[in-house]
Amino acid sequence: MKIKWWKKNKKEASTDIQQDSLVMASLETTGRKKKEKKTLTPAQKKKRRKRIFMGVAAVCVALFIASRVFAPEVLPVVAVRRTETGTIEQTVDTSGTVKTEKQKTYFSPLSAVISECKVEKGDAVSAGDVLLVYDAEDLKNRESEARLQNDEAYYTYQDTVGKSNSDAAEYSRSSHDVEILEQQVEDWKANVRALKQYITDMGCFLREAVNDGHENDAEEYQSKIDQATNELAVKEEELADFQSDLAEQKGIKNSTEDTMLTANGRKQVEATKELAALKAEKVKAAVAEVSEGLKAEFGGIVTDVKAVNGSAVEESGELLTIESNEDVCVEISLSKSELEKVKEGQKAIITIVGKEYEGTVTRISKSAAKNDKGAVVVAGEIHINNPDADIFLGVEAKVKIESHKAENVVMVPIESVNIGKEGSFVYVVKDGIVEIRNVETGISSAEFMEIKSGLEENEQVVLNSGAGITEGAQVTPMEG
Predict the structure, then answer these.
(1) In this model, does residue 205 exceed pLDDT 50?
(2) Would the pLDDT of 318 be above 50?
(3) 32 pLDDT exceeds 80?
(4) What number is the average pLDDT over the span 35-52?
């Protein structure tokens, strides 16, 4: 508006100057006609031109001053927008990597030779697809070997336990015999000692009878000594037999005790037998499981292959890995400001290779970490609700999380909200005068900010408060 006024007045001033110039030119012509007969010197001509120029300049200055004095005041123009009532949807825009929520690494259920691996890394498979095939003849041999080992363990157990039971019975019998024989030996030793003492005593009596000349007594004592001596010989022979029998039974007892199974020994051979049986059953079940090939349990992508055609793989050896492309999510990293807006259960829109999918925030880690740039972030996962065959694992995905929603609220353009020492405020234009209005803000979208208090609908707020905008200033509002 100021520029237009200046152009208009500048044009009028220029017209006035031209008219004055014509008047001066006319006067000069008239004067020249009246004095045409008078010839002017060069100095006089220069002096006359100077007076004419100074006169024209004075007229221009006068016109400019008049235009400034009588022109209306020009006010600064500010862009404003009226507050309105509507709905604000707060979103968090980020990106992440598509990954599986379900994966399985297949291990060989038995030691066997791989005939053919039917998949390669990156292949897509469906549930029930054959992943690899074992050598049929080798599987048959593995099953026969396990069955023979089970038989061997069984018969070894039977033999060991049978012998142990026999030894136990013999040990029990010999222990009983040893106990009896030991008592007999002690008894016979006592009899031998008694007979020897008896013979010694009779010998004393015999010597006394001989010394006293009692021949009859002497004969009687001698007869008793002879009888006792014969009985002693029998007792000593029987004692020797008892001692021999005792030694034999002790030998039997000791030998059977050494070979007889202890409680722990019996458990050990039982465990060996049971392990062999379990292994045979396991091999049998494994052969039945893979007789038609190792099959995929679910659909997905083969992400690793260790199996090699013609190689022998050990039991529990790693074969391959499948990651599901049916149970998938997007792994994201959230900054502190984003973490305040994102909660588990919120909905999201996921874009993968130009195709949109629905998603749900299912996990937010409780532990923060630093990313490659050193910023502290928290990991999160967004489950893809409607995956399809176009899902690619490991690719980047764009994510828009529907954070919060406020309906029927007063809202202003986000660039109109300023932050001061006392909080948020906006500049409001009322009757051409700028006011500062403190406001309480709520959620925000990419374009609008919710105003909980401080503003009403249809008020004019300054969009971008540049330099020079102060409270109380007169402005010309221009709605954008």
Answers:
(1) yes
(2) yes
(3) no
(4) 58
Q: Are 430 and 460 in contact (CB under 8 A)?
A: yes
**Is the pLDDT reported for residue 245 higher than 50?**
yes
Q: Name the phi and psi angles at 328, rounded to 5.
A: -130, 160
Strands 423-430 and 460-462: antiparallel
Query: What SS3 string covers the chain?
Result: CHHHHHHHHHHHHHHHHHHHHHHHHHHHHHHHHHCCCCCCCHHHHHHHHHHHHHHHHHHHHHHHHHHHHHCCCCCCEEEEEECEEEEEEEEEEEEEEEEECCEEEEECCCCEEEEEECCCCCCEECCCCEEEEECHHHHHHHHHHHHHHHHHHHHHHHHHHHHHHHHHHHHHHHHHHHHHHHHHHHHHHHHHHHHHHHHHHHHHHHHHHHHHCCHHHHHHHHHHHHHHHHHHHHHHHHHHHHHHHHHHHHHHHHHHHHHCCCHHHHHHHHHHHHHHHHHHHHHHHHHHHHCCCEECCCCEEEEEECCCCCCEECCCCEEEEEEECCCEEEEEEECHHHHCCCCCCCEEEEEECCEEEEEEEEEEEEEEEECCCCCEEEEEEEEECCCCCCCCCCCEEEEEEEEEEEEEEEEEEHHHCEEECCEEEEEEEECCEEEEEECEEEEECCCEEEEEECCCCCCEEECCCCCCCCCCCECEEEEC
In angstroms, the CA 322 to CA 328 distance is 13
Q: Which two tokens stand for residue 175?
A: 């222990």
pLDDT at position 67? 52
Mean pLDDT over residues 86-99, rounded? 93
Q: Find where tokens 């037999």 sit.
A: 241
In this prediction, residue 466 has a pLDDT band, given cuts at 50, 70 and 90, of low
Most distant CA pair in the chain: distance in Å?
229
Q: What is the mean pLDDT of residues 304-312?
A: 95
Task: Give the per-residue pLDDT at 21.
Answer: 47
pLDDT (0 to 100) of residue 422: 87
As a whole number of angstroms, the distance between CA 37 and CA 39 comes to 7
* Count of CA atoms in the C-beta half-sphere (13 A) of 321: 9
Q: Is the per-residue pLDDT at 252 higher than 50?
A: yes
How many other CB atoms sit within 10 Å of the CB of residue 267?
11
pTM above the 0.70 mark?
A: no
**Is the predicted pLDDT of residue 26 greater than 80, yes or no?**
no
